[in-house]
Design brief:
- With 93 residues, this protein is α+β, with helices and mostly antiparallel strands.
- Helices cover 24% and strands 31% of the residues.
- The chain has a three-stranded antiparallel sheet.
- Strand 2 and strand 3 form a beta hairpin.
- The two termini are 13 Å apart.
Length: 93
């Protein structure tokens, strides 16, 4: 996959808060939901980024983060040799 350019500089966050909001229409006939991820820098005690995603995207993030965590554990345990440059980006759209 080609690299996706970003105009944003990386920001440090060491904590994350997750919440969700469910909205209903006035007649309660329809509902809509979003998942909010708030990334926090605990040293500065402030939210450095708020991201709002759909429930479908949140579910996809679970799978991607789990696979990444497993791969990272293998690399740290020495089971997999890290390549020279591994800027793997996974697109879940």
């Amino acid at each position: 996959m080609a690299k996706l350019p970003s105009k944003e500089k990386p920001t440090f966050a060491d904590e994350v808060m997750v919440s969700f909001v469910i909205k209903r229409t006035k007649d309660n006939s329809e509902r809509d939901a979003v998942v909010r991820l708030s990334f926090v820098d605990s040293m500065r005690k402030e939210i450095v980024s708020d991201i709002v995603v759909s429930p479908i995207t949140a579910k996809s993030m679970i799978v991607i983060l789990q696979k990444t965590a497993e791969k990272l554990e293998s690399v740290l345990a020495g089971k997999i040799e890290k390549r020279q440059r591994n800027d793997e980006t996974t697109y879940i759209g």
